[in-house]
Every structure is written in structure tokens, then in C-alpha cells.
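Structure in, sequence out. Go:
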């Protein structure tokens, strides 16, 4: 399987697409066609473990990787998850299921891909004959950074540097990153919001001068951000796995459609659901849930993507995003894979901060996607009401998706399609907000909030968060956004 750029420039192997991260022309790598999973193949995947299901889906795209090695890497990655199943599906009501993707080392769904990415990336480099040291640069709105650091710590031939907006992440997220262990890691806070942080990192990636200078030092850049196909591919697998779990527990008939509701920021997670559908998974609607930063809701409803708006900091910080990078991959598909059209839309976004779909393009988006958003008060209410009704504690991001589901069901009373809500973080990752929502108690200290939340819900506290309290803080630096490259050079030169 070959990969092409959404902006038309390149055609490369899967290994190259992953090693390189982003295409030379600034576009994103997409598979040249969607491999199909037939009904028979789906049936054959029912008895498989999560790791085997993941390897089977991944190998459809990454046929230049050895299947047995890939399977072994999946087994190793998903053995790090706490519940013995990396992506358990929990039934809370008739036709309503929670897909829990937060049992990994950092308690957010990013672990699903980032526990596997070190293998996909180093192997990808080896397959392409890249012998240099790989330097991963990551801009994070909170959860990616920690998951990437955990995934890559002490990996051979790789260094990783993570940048986060200085006041755009939760206390818990900051502490998780600041206490990161490992010899090959670095963490830097950047003054500004996530979009500014991400743009500053992207400038390093696209600068010929930076790249040439780093190469002289024996270093090549790569990204672990969600634009890397190596991030996207492992996410496709859990949509299949959720469907297979519904089949094996007789919740649905073979071929029956399922709706997925996804808390969305960069559009990576929900795009993986779209890819699964294009591979043949029976999907009804994809409910795209935003928080108060509702640029995607407006886009789906009107066909106009307009980032010229106020940026809000919310209690679901991993969705505080105005530029959803992975949307470019969807634009490529709905434009009929028209790279010139994608380039024009992306240019308009960069220059004017806005672009509009044609009526036909908008109709394609609306045929599958339904957009909604959840304000701060609604987030709190949803967590409270859902806990009252089902004794199921949700984190602030997942609550946005649940809220969108409730609205969707109220507006589409005739749609009885089963709904899977994608749970992207553990409630313990945002313990104060969840505790406040459930009990009305405003607890200042995160660890006290964890303790109280445990008492209120009886839900098990993830080990990695419980241990955090006693860990040494290693990284405290803050930098201006035009000083990032200088910090990268310092890190590269550090022995
Ligand atoms: C990253 C993240 C999201 C958003 O996912 P995208 O792939 O960027 O759309 C939602 N919830 C949580 C908890 C996250 O960490």
C-alpha cells in the first residue's frame, strides 16, 4: 500500500509516511485507497485479542511491515494497559455503550496509538534506511505530550521534546509531564495558546535551514502529532474492536449499523472512525462533539470553517483547538481526492482564516457527520446527571460527547441505532472538575480530589496517577514561542 499527500506532491511507502510524519509539500499522508475488511474477515476477527485485531487492521495499510513483528509490537504495547483489555466496551443502557480508551499508562486515549508509535517509527526509519538519530518534536494541548513521553522514554535511537502552552493544560497534565523520567526526554512550556504552540513547532518542521543544520548534527526530525499516519492507524483498530465486541455479545446483528460519538479537537480520533467506515465497518452517523471552541460544529452545520473567533480555555483542555489539522484528510476525500482543491482551502485558511465548502461538499459531510458542542455548564450538568442515572463517572471530554448524544437522540427520535460513546480520558485525570460536577465540592488539591472521587464513585484509581504525587519535578522551563528552535538545538547538543 502506497501513501500520497493531500496536496498532491508525493507517493511513498507506509514506512516512509510514518518516518517522515508530514509530506514535503506540507500536506498529510493518506492511503492511496482504502483497504477493505469483508464481512467474513470481520467474523474471523471476533475471537481475536485486542492486540491481534489491531495488528490485523494495521497490516491492511502497513503491508511493508512484517505481520508477526507487528503483532508482537501490538501485544507489547497493549500489555501496558491496566484492565487486561486495552479498549473495553461497557454497556450502560439499552443501545448505549461506552468505549473506554483510558486504561493506558497516561489515562487518555492517546495511549492507544502512542504505546505503539515508537515501534512503527523506528521500524519505519530502519525500513527506509534512515540511520540518523530521530528527534521527535510534539506540540501538545495536554494529553499527547505525556503519552508520547511515556511511549518514547529510553527508546534506542530516538530523542523526544514536548512543548505545551504554559497555561493551557490542567494541573494534572502539567505534573505528569514535568515529572517525566527517561534519559532522552525534554519538556518545555511555551507562552501562548495551543494553536500558537503548534504553529511554532510546525515552523521548525517546514524550515529547510533548521532541517539542514540538524542533519549535520546527525539528527532527523519526526512528529508524534496526530497528523502522523502512525498515530491515526492504531486508532482505526478500536472502532473495529468495539463493533466486534457488540457482535460477540449479541448486542447487534452482523451488518447492523452503529453510531459513534467522539469528543473532538484535532479531528484525529473521529477521522479514524471515518477511515474504519471507508474500510467497510457498518457506521450510521459520526457525532462530532466539541466544547465551547465550536469551530467544527459550525463547519459541519454550515460548511464554513472560520477560525477567526475567540479562543476559550475550558475544563476539557484537550479539545481547546481552533485549527483541527486532521480535517485536511477529510477534505481530501469529500473533494473527490482533489489535491488542488485541498491546497486552495488550506491556503485560504492560512491567509484569511476561513474557507467555505461547496454545497455538494457540505452535503457529503452532513450525510455522515453530525456536529454539536457542549458549554461549560452543560459539561458539569452532564457529568452530574449521568452519574446520578447510571453511577458511571465520566471525564470532562467524554461528557461533551454524551451531551451531543442526548441532543442527537432528542432531535432524531426515530433513529434507534446503537450508540458508542468514545471515552477519551479517565475521570481521575480531571479529578477536581469531575468531583465538582458530581458532588458540588470544590477541592483545591488534585490528589485530595482523587481520593474523594474514589470514595464517591468506588472507581479504581489508575496506578500511574496515584504514584504521581511522590515523583520529582524535572522540567520547569518556560520559553517564548520564537525561541523554540534555540531550545531544540540546546537539547540536541546536550550529551
Ligand atoms: C486529544 C484528546 C481529544 C481530542 O482528540 P482529537 O483526536 O484531537 O480530536 C479528546 N479528549 C481527550 C481526553 C484527548 O486527550
Amino acid at each position: 500500500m502506497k501513501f500520497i499527500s493531500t496536496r498532491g506532491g508525493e507517493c511513498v511507502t507506509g514506512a516512509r509516511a510514518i518516518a517522515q510524519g508530514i509530506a514535503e509539500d506540507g500536506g498529510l499522508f493518506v492511503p492511496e485507497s482504502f483497504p477493505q475488511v469483508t464481512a467474513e474477515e470481520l467474523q474471523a476477527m471476533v475471537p481475536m485479542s485486542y492486540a491481534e485485531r489491531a495488528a490485523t487492521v494495521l497490516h491492511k495499510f502497513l503491508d511493508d511491515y512484517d505481520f508477526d513483528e507487528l503483532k508482537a509490537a501490538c501485544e507489547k504495547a497493549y500489555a501496558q494497559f491496566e484492565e487486561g483489555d486495552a479498549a473495553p466496551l461497557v454497556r450502560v443502557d439499552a443501545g448505549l455503550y461506552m468505549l473506554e480508551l483510558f486504561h493506558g499508562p497516561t489515562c487518555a486515549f492517546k495511549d492507544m496509538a502512542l504505546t505503539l508509535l515508537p515501534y512503527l517509527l523506528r521500524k519505519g526509519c530502519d525500513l527506509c534506511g534512515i540511520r540518523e538519530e530521530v528527534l521527535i518534536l510534539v506540540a501538545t494541548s495536554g494529553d499527547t505530550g505525556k503519552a508520547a513521553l511515556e511511549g518514547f522514554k529510553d527508546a534506542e535511537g530516538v530523542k523526544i521534546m514536548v512543548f505545551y502552552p504554559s497555561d493551557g493544560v490542567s494541573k494534572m497534565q502539567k505534573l505528569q509531564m514535568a515529572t517525566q523520567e527517561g534519559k532522552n526526554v525534554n519538556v518545555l512550556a511555551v507562552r501562548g495558546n495551543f494553536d500558537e504552540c503548534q504553529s511554532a513547532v510546525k515552523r521548525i518542521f517546514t524550515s529547510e535551514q533548521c532541517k539542514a543544520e540538524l542533519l549535520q548534527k546527525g539528527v532527523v526530525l519526526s512528529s508524534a502529532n496526530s497528523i502522523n499516519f502512525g498515530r491515526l492507524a492504531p486508532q482505526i483498530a478500536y472502532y473495529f474492536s468495539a463493533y466486534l465486541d457488540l457482535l460477540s455479545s449479541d448486542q447487534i446483528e452482523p451488518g447492523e449499523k452503529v453510531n459513534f460519538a467522539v469528543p473532538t479537537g484535532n479531528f484525529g480520533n473521529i477521522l479514524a472512525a471515518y477511515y474504519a467506515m471507508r474500510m467497510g465497518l457498518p457506521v450510521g452517523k459520526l457525532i462530532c462533539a466539541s466544547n465551547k471552541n465550536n469551530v467544527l460544529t459550525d463547519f459541519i452545520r454550515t460548511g464554513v470553517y472560520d477560525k477567526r473567533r475567540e479562543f476559550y480555555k475550558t475544563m476539557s483542555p484537550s479539545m481547546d483547538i481552533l485549527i483541527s489539522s486532521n480535517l485536511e484528510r477529510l477534505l481530501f476525500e469529500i473533494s473527490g481526492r482533489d489535491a488542488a482543491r485541498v491546497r486552495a482551502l488550506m491556503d485560504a485558511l492560512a491567509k484569511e482564516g476561513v474557507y467555505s465548502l461547496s454545497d455538494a461538499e457540505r452535503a457529503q459531510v452532513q450525510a455522515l457527520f453530525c456536529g454539536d458542542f457542549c458549554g461549560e455548564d452543560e459539561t458539569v450538568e452532564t457529568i452530574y446527571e449521568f452519574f446520578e442515572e447510571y453511577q458511571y463517572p465520566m471525564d470532562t471530554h467524554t461528557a461533551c460527547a454524551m451531551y451531543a448524544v442526548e441532543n442527537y437522540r432528542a432531535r432524531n427520535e426515530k433513529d434507534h441505532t446503537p450508540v458508542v460513546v468514545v471515552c477519551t480520558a479517565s475521570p481521575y485525570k480531571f479529578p477536581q472538575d469531575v468531583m465538582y460536577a458530581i458532588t458540588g465540592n470544590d477541592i483545591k488539591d488534585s490528589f485530595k480530589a482523587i481520593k474523594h472521587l474514589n470514595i464517591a464513585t468506588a472507581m479504581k484509581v489508575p496506578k500511574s496517577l496515584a504514584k504521581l504525587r511522590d515523583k520529582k519535578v524535572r522540567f520547569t522551563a518556560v520559553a517564548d514561542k520564537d525561541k523554540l528552535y534555540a531550545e531544540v538545538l540546546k537539547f540536541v547538543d546536550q550529551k
